[in-house]
């Protein structure tokens, strides 16, 4: 699981020790993601399945894409499709993905890179493996997160952020047992490169076997942790945790995770944010506040108001 790594985590900034009065967030809900298929048939785990939207707010959807080792000719993507009213955040851990949208944005993301698309008032886009990967096959593993936009930002102009993995803020625990990659938001004063409309934190964390992480977290944010690989325990009661499981935490000041002693690392995606607390009306690729706004989004898409598919693919995406 390459993402972004360092030869010696001990050269990185350290998390501060927890205040003795800090409250470790308890486990409010623990779910296991069901498996399915997306787009043209690539395998996913639906990380948020079975969790009420009120507990996910400001997030809407999270898929773990892969991990799968494709044979030649097998890699798959998605066809052109619309979005309105939210942001898609695609984090590539292993492999390569091309992106192009009707607003002129696009590019290639690979190990540790993030493609952040703000759909806003509407956009068309496509995500697909490059032709060379289709021909050769190879490992593919990533995440796609949908971040809701507040009512005031739902109809803003579309925007694209190309975030290279090297731009992530890197830090470790006092004993060097973890590598924390901050993609967006702020953890213990260390800010990630992603620019957000809603205050959120996103981080990919690698815990060495037997290591413990006490991760400070803003009290006003919700706190979610999804397991990408490995096993461990979570919370003050040390509940068992494994691949494909999502933890919804209760209130508190910090998240506590411990990796099993051996043999593998524990890979985590930690996310949370300040809840928007607005009505959510979602259908397919649109996330709005009301049913009438959803109907309007479909009408606008059918009338071509969400953009036009470019005649050619970007030259650097294939």
What does this protein look like?
By secondary structure, the chain is mainly β. The chain has one domain (9-307): Jelly Rolls (Sandwich). It contains three helices and 26 strands. The chain has helices at residues 53-56, 131-136, 291-302; strands at 27-32, 35-38, 42-46, 59-70, 78-83, 86-94, 97-101, 106-109, 114-118, 123-128, 138-148, 159-163, 169-171, 178-184, 186-187, 190-191, 200-207, 212-216, 224-229, 231-234, 239-242, 245-249, 254-259, 266-273, 281-283, 286-288. A hairpin with a 4-residue loop joins strand 7 (97-101) and strand 8. The longest helix is centred in the last third of the chain and has 12 residues, at 291-302. The model has no long low-confidence stretch (mean pLDDT 92). Pfam families: Pirin (PF02678), Pirin_C (PF05726).
How do the helices and strands line up, and which of them pair or pack?
Elements: E1 27-32, E2 35-38, E3 42-46, H1 53-56, E4 59-70, E5 78-83, E6 86-94, E7 97-101, E8 106-109, E9 114-118, E10 123-128, H2 131-136, E11 138-148, E12 159-163, E13 169-171, E14 178-184, E15 186-187, E16 190-191, E17 200-207, E18 212-216, E19 224-229, E20 231-234, E21 239-242, E22 245-249, E23 254-259, E24 266-273, E25 281-283, E26 286-288, H3 291-302
Antiparallel strand pairs: 1-22, 2-3, 3-4, 4-11, 5-10, 6-9, 6-11, 7-8, 7-10, 9-12, 13-14, 14-17, 15-16, 17-24, 18-23, 19-22, 19-24, 20-21, 20-23, 25-26
Organism: Krasilnikovia cinnamomea
GO molecular function, one term: metal ion binding
Pfam family, one: Pirin_C
């Amino acid at each position: 699981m390459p993402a972004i790594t360092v030869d010696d985590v001990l050269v990185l900034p350290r998390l501060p020790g927890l205040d003795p009065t800090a409250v470790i967030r308890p486990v409010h809900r623990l779910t296991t993601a069901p498996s399915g298929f997306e787009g043209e048939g690539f395998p996913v785990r639906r990380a948020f399945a079975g969790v009420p939207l009120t507990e996910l707010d400001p997030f809407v959807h999270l898929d773990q894409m892969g991990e799968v080792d494709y044979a030649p000719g097998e890699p798959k993507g998605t066809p052109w499709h619309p979005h309105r009213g939210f942001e898609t955040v695609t984090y590539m851990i292993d492999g390569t993905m091309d992106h192009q949208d009707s607003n002129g944005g696009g590019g290639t993301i690979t190990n540790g890179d993030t493609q952040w698309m703000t759909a806003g008032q509407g956009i068309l886009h496509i995500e697909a493996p490059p032709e060379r990967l289709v021909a050769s096959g190879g490992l593919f593993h990533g995440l796609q997160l949908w971040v809701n936009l507040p009512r005031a930002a739902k109809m803003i102009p579309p925007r694209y952020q190309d975030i290279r993995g090297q731009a992530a803020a890197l830090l470790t625990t006092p004993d060097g047992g973890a590598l924390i990659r901050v993609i967006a938001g702020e953890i213990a004063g260390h800010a990630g490169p992603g620019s957000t409309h809603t205050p959120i934190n996103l981080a990919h964390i690698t815990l060495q076997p037997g290591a413990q992480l006490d991760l400070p977290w803003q009290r006003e944010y919700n706190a979610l942790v999804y397991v990408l690989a490995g096993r461990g325990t979570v919370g003050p009661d040390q509940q068992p945790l494994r691949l494909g499981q999502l933890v919804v935490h209760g209130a508190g000041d910090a998240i506590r995770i411990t990796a099993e002693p051996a043999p593998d690392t524990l890979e985590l995606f930690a996310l949370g944010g300040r809840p928007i607390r607005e009505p959510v009306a979602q259908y397919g690729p649109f996330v709005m506040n009301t049913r009438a706004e959803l109907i309007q989004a479909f009408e606008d898409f059918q009338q071509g108001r969400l953009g036009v598919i470019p005649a050619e693919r970007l030259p650097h995406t294939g």
